[in-house]
Amino acid sequence: MYGQGILRGLRITLMHFFRTYLDDLRYGLRKFSSNENFAQRQGPQARGVFTVQYPDEKLAVPERFRFIPFLIVEDYDHPERPGHDWCTSCGICAKVCPPQCIWIVRETDPQTGRPKPEPEAFFIDIDICMNCGYCAEFCPFDAIKMDHDYEMASYDRTSHHIFDKEKLSKELRYWRTIAPTTAYEEMLARGGWEHSDVIKERKKEARNAQKVPRAERLAAQEEAGTAAANGADEAAAVAEPVAAEGTSEDPEQARREQKRAEMKARLAARRAAKKSN
Amino acid sequence: MTEVVAEAKGPEREENLNTAEAGYQSLKERFPDAVSDDAREGYSGILVDATHLPEVATAIRDELGYDYLSSATAVDHLGLEGECLEMVYHAYRTSGGPALVFKAQTDRSAAEIPSVTPVWPGADFQEREAWDLFGIQFPGHPNLKRILLWEGFDGHPLRKDWREPYYEEEHKPFDSRWPGGKVFRAEETNLFGKNVQYPDDFDLGQLADVSDEALYSGLGLGVNVEPLANGSSNGLQTDTIVVNMGPHHPSTHGVFRMVTELRGETIHSLEPVMGYLHRNHEKIGERNAWLHNMPFTDRLDYISSMGNNLGYALAVEQLMSRGARYKAPPYRAEVIRVLMAELTRIVNHLWAVGFLLNDLGAFFTPMLYANNTREKILDVFEAAAGSRLMCNYMRFGGVYKDIPERLRSVANLVNDKIRDLDFMQFLGELVRDAIPRAIDELDDLLTENEILRTRCEGVGILPAETAIAYSTAGPLLRASGVAYDVRRAEPYSIYPDLDFAVCTRPNGDIYDRYLIRIDEMRESVKILKQILPLLEQTAGQEIMPGGKPGAYMPRVPVGEAYGRVENPKGELGYYVVSAGDPKGPQNPWRYHIRATSFINLTVLGTLCQGHKVADVVTILGSIDIVLGEVDR
Ligand code: SF4
Ligand code: SF4
Known about the structure:
The structure holds two protein chains of two kinds.
Chain A: H1 4-27, H2 35-41, E1 58-59, E2 67-73, H3 92-96, E3 102-108, E4 115-125, H4 134-138, E5 144-147, H5 157-160, E6 162-163, H6 165-168, E7 169-171, H7 172-178, H8 180-190, H9 196-211, H10 214-234, H11 241-244, H12 251-276
Parallel strand pairs in A: 2-7
Antiparallel strand pairs in A: 2-5, 3-4, 4-6
Helix pairs in contact in A: 7-8
Chain B: E1 3-5, H1 11-30, E2 35-37, E3 46-48, H2 53-62, E4 68-76, E5 84-92, E6 100-107, H3 124-134, H4 205-208, H5 212-217, H6 226-230, E7 240-245, E8 257-263, E9 266-273, H7 281-287, H8 293-298, H9 305-320, H10 331-359, H11 365-385, E10 394-395, E11 398-399, E12 406-408, E13 416-417, E14 420-422, H12 423-446, H13 450-456, H14 464-469, H15 475-478, H16 486-489, E15 502-504, H17 510-537, E16 559-567, E17 570-578, E18 588-594, H18 596-600, H19 604-608, H20 613-623, H21 627-631
Parallel strand pairs in B: 3-6
Antiparallel strand pairs in B: 1-15, 2-3, 4-5, 5-6, 7-8, 8-9, 10-11, 12-14, 16-17, 17-18
Helix pairs in contact in B: 9-10, 10-11, 10-17, 10-20, 11-12, 12-17
Bound molecules: iron/sulfur cluster (2 copies).
One iron/sulfur cluster is lined by residues 87-93, 104, 139, 141, 143-144 of chain A.
């Protein structure tokens, strides 16, 4: 019969319409309250239409999300090198950048005239940056990472859109907050939460220590132990997956478990903060 | 309903391989004076003497059966052996098998090569492009006008001695970036003040002339602007009028323009006008280092960037495989690549079907239903690659990173909504449940809809012979009953091990082009269901050879390669040439894209003839173009 196809189509549109409200009823007022519900409604099993009310609400971006890069500096309360650049101005990111939007001035030692492993200046033209993520991928020192902050519109591009070192620098702590898993993997590859040069230095010292008598070696070990403890303290605000290792047979599983618990705690804290506001 | 053509595998393919060699042999015997082997290191195929090209081309098509001209492009050999301009042609048989590659050379100062458009009409736009960007004349071409650039453009930009206004150095990386990186804005250093240069004798005044005549006079093919000029009215007969659609028109899917000549309501002739989004992608690509190009390929067909990545990776791997220390991508990398490529196909077809309905006037309801599922696939891309559209996920030898464990969103802003789902579970539910459901729903919603059928059935019919002759590809070709799919015709990656059918439809009208997309989505789901267990089996295996990330400045051996993939919109090919370099070959000498959307448009004029204006919009929608790829 002519018109049957149209009617069938209309039934589907109608179903869509109802499903949205059925879903709203099912989740009721809890719709916005719990993360599980939220994930459910944004997952593949969701029926009906469920929109996120940007900018009042935002969908948190996944860890690998990449927007304009930033430079990692040591935490500002780091006991030894607060605010120290992780970048050694090796220039790899500037070479691998497809639109060539990274400019680096390498610092030279005024006394010897030899280059120092630190950038004197570091610029990224964020109008040109294509957010490809190569700089972060190929940096051998984990010193440049892709940011998650995408709300950076401004009124005048000529005066605001060349980011200098000051604007680009963010603490290591920030990276560990926005990308805990990735930061953890990188830590494992480096061998510690410190900059790879510091770790190398430590290893060298440890090797030297092996040559010295046992008593001294013990002292050195103790010292290293305290340093590690310091590191743990200082990062207490963010996830500390290293601690979970060893306590469980499956470190991966334990880590995930803990991460989830932390995330919940963090969220609860945030909600509490919001309420008190 | 689906017509499935079983694919010949195994021995037949080997036979085809032989026939490519046999083809060269027989051509050399037939044209001993005109044809010789291309003996340069790393090159393949035959060199054809330019003056004999039409005869040889006809023989290739008629006697050897290479009925499908996939790609025709030029290379500037300035400073290399021979110092010539060269046209490179890749011809295939629609029955499958490898390419027959032939080339014709010409002098740089008076570049002229006979047109092969009379033999393969599909060469039309590609030769115009070669004229536009390389300045090669093609005697015998029906309408040799610039196609991507404007008429007043100074020079032919893909010649090696042409320099852009923002010119800094021949090749990236530029020395000014490190270690003394004094930042500057390129546009402030531009010689011309604005990003425009034109010949001294070009009359800019003609741009100020906005009369109809001036607006249309630059166009050639078919559209007759005479009636406009003399303004004659011929009594009671229907007037011929010229109607311009675009470049800003909601139905054109971007900045695309069609100039139509109407007799009453009926299209007498139509000419597509493009290039509004042209950025000379290929010149940028030749300044870039090899790896630099990967994120640029995302910007071609930005709906299916994973597929673009894959094609480029395959082409460069083909070149690299000539090197001594080359290692092929590990198995898991191939599995992930196919996973992404097939998800991309679904993304693209959902989009295409949704927008086809928009073009039909069913504003946004079907489109949003389709997009709902598409967004979830993009979640997968975002979790794995870091971006929803500009994925930049493939690398030479593998992929950027293994798929993540969790499809995790982590909050860093106060009011963020967090999700933390298991990636494999999400993917599994998507493939087994959500995507098939969405496809069925679209099918239910649209396929039997009487309005849709009336508008689409029997409109814009593309016969199989025309489809082949015009080098159309992808769903457009298969909806005309030609079972040609690169995944089967010249398999790559792990496609030979996968079970799927090459869908075809017999009628070649808009309705069939809609149905074929639904069919192909179903086949993609079938592939994905085979991929899921493979992903689980290979979990934890390496995704780059040796488990190490690739070099950031890979060395690529000298030679040429043509890598092609079956992208959702059709065959996407990359023709890359590596030439020696004192520091080692690091930059592509030639980086050409066989852009499906661009070549599929060659047939648009023919397809629209005799239809109504309203149908033009739908026909264009059923071809499914993306202007990022058309204009490059
Ligand atoms: S690659 Fe890393 S260490 Fe080297 S210059 Fe760039 S940010 Fe600094
Ligand atoms: S993200 Fe890509 S374009 Fe942006 S600075 Fe890094 S390498 Fe350059």
